[in-house]
Design a protein that fits this description.
Blueprint: H1 2-42, H2 45-52, H3 72-89, H4 92-106, H5 108-111, H6 114-125, H7 134-153, H8 156-167, H9 180-200, H10 207-210, H11 212-219, H12 222-243, H13 250-266, H14 272-283, H15 293-296
């Protein structure tokens, strides 16, 4: 219930936001005919059902919220939650059958990125993992973010993707997962940074720990920022393309987007408990073993 509340508390408003923002632009840009065309093409019962069941990336599908590309990753994440629950709480032949069935349903592009997600599970469970010395941990905690930045600035991922696309016909079917080699390398650097930070155990007087309340408060808006910013960003980009110049100063535009995201997040992501009670009322209390999912699974 907690996981469903976290996801749907933001996904449902994001779906509505994407439709409203793009629909309003269609009405402004082309009148009723363009709005009707947008609604008939993008807001169909099948598409909405696909989005809300997180099946928009199965095999060769690529279905998402209008003007909100980041929704693609949730189609992966939700399947990883399901697989985690099956592999953790089921046993025997039933676990094997259900896990295989989920993998067959998910398809290759979801499965190929699963090691990146599972690395977080592994790291959370293996609290004994550490660098040979604190000096190495200090190097890793600063070097890993720099390595990530350099890797993504170098064009390494695009180079690998082009090479694979050229060498393996039909590989395009992985779509958003085509860049999986670069994602694997990113995962190694991210895991190293978290492992180093855990080993260093920053003290109560450190700047990081003193800022913990603010950091935790801001972290409560990360999912909202992830899904709510793109429709407004795309709206500004489309207006700029139409008129040849941005409708406002970029810094001002970014500030307004952040303010709107904060307002939306305060009534969505920050209100997960209400969503959890709703799902509990609709679906009933989970079994005792499944109530452990919240504590056992990564956030």
């Amino acid at each position: 219930m907690a996981r469903a509340a976290r996801i749907y508390s933001v996904v449902l408003p994001a779906l509505a936001l994407g439709v409203v923002v793009k629909g309003a632009y269609a009405l402004y840009h082309g009148g009723g005919n363009e709005l009707a065309g947008f609604m008939s093409a993008e807001v169909t019962p099948l598409k909405i059902a696909t989005i809300l069941t997180f099946t928009g990336q199965l095999w060769t599908l690529s279905i998402g919220i209008p003007w909100d590309g980041p929704i693609w990753s949730l189609n992966y994440e939700v399947f990883y939650y399901l697989l985690f629950g099956v592999l953790t709480f089921m046993t025997g032949r039933r676990r094997t059958i259900v896990a295989i069935a989920l993998c067959v349903i998910a398809g290759p592009k979801i499965l190929v990125l699963m090691p990146c997600w599972w690395a977080g599970v592994f790291l959370a469970r293996r609290t004994d993992l550490a660098f040979p010395s604190r000096t190495m941990a200090w190097v890793a905690v600063f070097a890993a973010p720099m390595a990530l930045w350099l890797l993504n600035r170098s064009g390494f991922g695009d180079f690998i993707k082009r090479d694979v696309l050229w060498q393996v016909p039909g590989f395009w079917r992985l779509e958003d997962a085509t860049n999986f080699v670069a994602y694997y390398v990113d995962t190694v650097f991210i895991a190293a940074a978290f492992m180093a930070a855990r080993q260093l155990r920053f003290g109560a007087t450190s700047l990081l720990m003193q800022g913990a309340p603010v950091i935790q408060w801001l972290a409560g808006y990360t999912f909202s920022l992830y899904l709510f910013h793109r429709p407004f960003q795309n709206l500004l980009a489309q207006i700029t393309a139409d008129y040849g110049e941005p409708p406002m100063d970029p810094v001002l535009g970014l500030g307004l987007i952040l303010v709107v995201v904060a307002l939306l997040g305060s009534v969505t992501e920050k209100r997960k408990e209400g969503w959890r009670r709703l799902f509990t009322a609709l679906l009933g209390q989970p079994a005792p073993a499944l109530r452990a999912v919240k504590a056992a699974s990564p956030s």
